[in-house]
Structure formats: C-alpha cells, structure tokens
C-alpha cells in the first residue's frame, strides 16, 4: 500500500496512455489528458523533409502499416500510414476501430498545439520531449525542436520586460511546461546552448559511478533513471536529490514499482498506465 506521508510523484504518460491506445497518437495523448496525467512524454525524430514527428522506433514497421525508416520518409508519406490498427492485434481482446483522424502520424507541432490548448483552460499540463538518435543529425533535431518551441512561446522566455528597472534581463521569464530528455548528454548540451531556461533530463539505463555519486552532465537539472536502476540502487534517488536533482523514473507500470518510487520520494513516474497509477496514488 502507498504511504500517504510520502511525496506524491508527478504522473507522466509515456507515449500517451500507451497501454490503452496506440502509442504516440493523438488518441493516446487525448486519453492521457482525460485520465488526468500531469505530463505527457513523447519521442521525436526527423522526417526526410525535416519535420519532427512523434515516433519511438527508427522504423515505422512496428507501429504502422508501412515500412522503412522515419528518416527516409517524407511527412506526406507518413501521413498516408495507419498508426492505429496494430494496437490490440496480438492481444486477447478485440481491437477497437481507431478513428483514422486521431491515429495518423503525429507531428510535434500538433502535440504542442494540444498542450497549449489544454493549458489555456487553466490546467498545468507538462510535456517531456525525448530526442532520439540525435547524433545522426548533427544538431538538426535540437535546432528544429527549439525553433518550434520558440514559435509556441515555450522556451521559458515570455517577452521584453516592461518594468524599466534596469535588471539587465531583457526578458520576462516563466517556467516552461516543456522539458527535454535524452540519453545523449551532447544533445542536452545543444538544447541548453539554444534555450538555457529549458529544463533538461539525462536518461540512463544503468548506474554509472558518476551517476551514483549524484553527478549529472554539466547544466543538466533532472536525473532520468530506469526503474531497473532504481530497484538495484535505491540510494541513487536520495543521492541525486541531495545534489539538487529531481528524479524522474521510467517506465513504471507495475504497482510494486509505483510503491517503491513513492517510498523513495521520486519526483515523477513515467508510465504507460496513467489512470491505474493515479488511482494507486489515491488521486
Ligand atoms: O521516458 C524515458 C523512456 O521513454 C526512455 O525509453 O525506449 O521508451 O524511449 P524509451
Ligand atoms: Ca521515450
């Protein structure tokens, strides 16, 4: 049972509510919002014609009726594919008929629109964007990402200050609801250089000695360990937090792992099952 005295972590919908709906589709993100998730997680990749789309794998084979690498396909080609019908195919229950409107390829731009629209109603929904294979693109993923976030006013700067008090800061700053995650420290450094106010998360699957000492790459604010790392090295969480780094754990799907994260006081759990985790947390 969850002990109510402990800190309640933020609940982040991994690829949307991806247990219930096809991952990385509008259907999965809309469902996560409806279920009450605090934040959404998505992976981004560049298409052949330079658009950022939300797809996890290098190829579209697993999650669509098409074939080939995302990087070799143009957005129009991806838009012709069905990213919904695979879901439920191998499961006992019947696959629902997904609405093609909400299960076509999702651009990051469309997801940002959803984020902004949701927050316009007074809700504080956050978004964790993961850069996939950024080294292949020599900075293009991060440049496109920051360009897009700037267009939506989501880099943490909100405009020219009007107070005239000569603070030397030409911008008002407000915390962005967006953070950028990566397994690549180089990718995070590029993001920091382009948008210094955006929080960054260093993802890691295994505990390096550096991580176990509570050290992250320079400038990175948040630690993003796998649940396996946390199970094997529970002291990691307190070590990071003592060093001033919040801890966001992935992918936390079973109740025992949720309880462990609560006991350890982690700051966010990234899960395919936002509704079940929120219920377990008594929310
Ligand atoms: O949230 C981090 C997690 O998504 C990293 O693993 O493979 O699901 O992108 P993956
Ligand atoms: Ca991811």
UniProtKB/TrEMBL annotation:
GP-PDE domain segment(s): 9-281
Protein's UniProt name: Glycerophosphodiester phosphodiesterase family protein
Organism: Streptomyces evansiae
Pfam families cross-referenced by the UniProt entry: GDPD
Domain of life: Bacteria
């Amino acid at each position: 049972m969850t002990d109510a005295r402990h800190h309640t972590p933020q609940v982040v919908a991994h690829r949307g509510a991806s247990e219930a709906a096809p991952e990385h589709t509008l259907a999965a993100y809309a469902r996560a919002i409806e279920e009450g998730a605090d934040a959404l997680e998505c992976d981004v990749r560049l298409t052949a014609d330079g658009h950022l789309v939300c797809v996890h794998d290098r190829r579209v084979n697993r999650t669509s009726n098409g074939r080939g690498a995302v990087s070799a396909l143009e957005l129009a080609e991806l838009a012709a594919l069905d990213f919904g019908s695979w879901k439920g195919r191998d499961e006992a229950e019947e696959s629902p008929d997904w609405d093609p409107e909400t299960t076509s390829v999702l651009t990051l731009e469309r997801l940002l629109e959803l984020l902004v629209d949701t927050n316009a109603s007074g809700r504080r929904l956050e978004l964790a964007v993961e850069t996939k294979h950024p080294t292949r693109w020599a900075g293009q993923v991060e440049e496109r990402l920051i360009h897009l976030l700037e267009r939506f006013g989501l880099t943490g700067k909100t405009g020219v200050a009007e107070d005239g008090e000569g603070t030397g800061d030409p911008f008002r700053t407000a915390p962005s609801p967006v953070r950028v995650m990566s397994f690549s420290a180089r990718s995070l450094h590029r993001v920091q250089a382009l948008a210094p106010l955006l929080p960054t998360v260093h993802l890691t699957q295994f505990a390096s000695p550096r991580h176990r000492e509570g050290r992250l790459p320079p400038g990175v604010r948040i630690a993003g360990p796998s649940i396996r790392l946390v199970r094997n090295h529970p002291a990691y969480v307190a070590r990071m937090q003592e060093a001033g780094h919040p801890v966001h754990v992935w992918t936390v799907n079973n109740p025992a792992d949720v309880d462990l994260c609560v006991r350890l006081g982690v700051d966010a759990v990234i899960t395919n099952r936002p509704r079940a985790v929120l219920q377990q947390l008594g929310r």
